[in-house]
Amino acid sequence: MIKINEQLRKYFVTISILSIAFITITSNISINYFFSGYIRDSRKRDDLKVVEYVESVYSDYEELNFQSLMNIMHYAFSEDVIIQIRDKNNNISWNSSKFGIMYGLIDEYSNDEENFLFRSYPFRYNESQVGTIDVGRPRSIISNIEDEKFIIIINSIFVAASILTLIIAIRSSTQISKKFLNPIFKIKENAKLIEQGKYKILNDVHTNTFELHELSVSVQELAERLNYQESLRKRMTTDIAHELRTPLAAIQSHIEAFIDGVWEPNDERLSVIHGEIIRLTKLINELSELSIVEENEINLKLSKVDISATLNDIMDSYEPMFLDKNISLNKNIQNDINMMGDIDYLKRIFVNILSNSIKYTNENGSVSVSLEQINDKIRIIVKDTGIGIPKEDLKFIFERFYRSDISRNRHTGGTGIGLTITKALVEAHEGTIKIDSEVGKGSRVIIEFNK
Question: Is residue 175 part of a domain?
Fold first, then answer.
């Protein structure tokens, strides 16, 4: 395994080397191609000047005598070329290099004709061709010291740029990787703190990189959620113990009174025991349902359900409970709305929501229920004027065993798993549930299903 900063440095250096190599090779190819083309065109123009000079000398002397050939030889030497003159039969009649060597004017090894490339041009006099002029120039485009210096300087610049680029790449990779990796290292430290259960001492991560910011926020939210889950687990023991202790204590006291002969087992006292047993049974059933929900084992028995009629029936059955608390019940139910679903589970959803509305709405309050179909969506809204839910508790309201401090302080009972089960049942029907609430003003539950 290699550290990420070393990996980034390696990538920086590799990319820099490849870039330099590409630029160097491309530049040298370009120089050889374009510069060679330029030299060829330039040499062709210079060759024509040589031909014009030879023709001019020939025209001045009207023959190739010693003096005219000497002038041509000096010109060839000054232009660093070899001039050959051929007759009409294409036989070489004169060569500037051999002529110069013959008279000791040119070093024997200074003009090696094997390293020269010759081009032929017509030799004209009085508008008629009297022979051919061959102009020989060095085969290599680097034919003089100035050309060699130019190539050396260019490649030296490339070498210097390569070294400088590598230094910049190494240093910048360190700085950039440090700037880029610091947030990642802090996020990593936060993950370690979460692993150790230290949810409240996470490092602040500052970055202008969108993905890293999103990752940091996700980790912070995970820590916050795990912290709440931890507190919920601690509450769970207390809550369940309380829910079990109260009915068991009532049953125990009644039975002990019966045994001691203090009370006679009449219908009223037996009904109290029966009620407490029902309460225990309900708690056990809720815990059993929660285990099914958490293991995603909800099996829907789908059928066509008349949502309008089902919701009306449930509201009619709950109307006496609303009247007992002097809560006005308003309904706006659109008729003949149907969907595919499990009628038992759908009833459980509506019962849970209405039960909460009754439980957390003060006397003389109001609860309104609406059902409507909007295009292919079925929307149920239950709105109450109850105690409301604090804003900071809303995102945890569907967590198992969660009850806000307001609901706990009012001793309204419950285990805090009703909404967890409700949300799971709604999602099993491929629907959504959302709760809007404000403390002291009430809550609004919005459920949507696909028709």
Answer: no
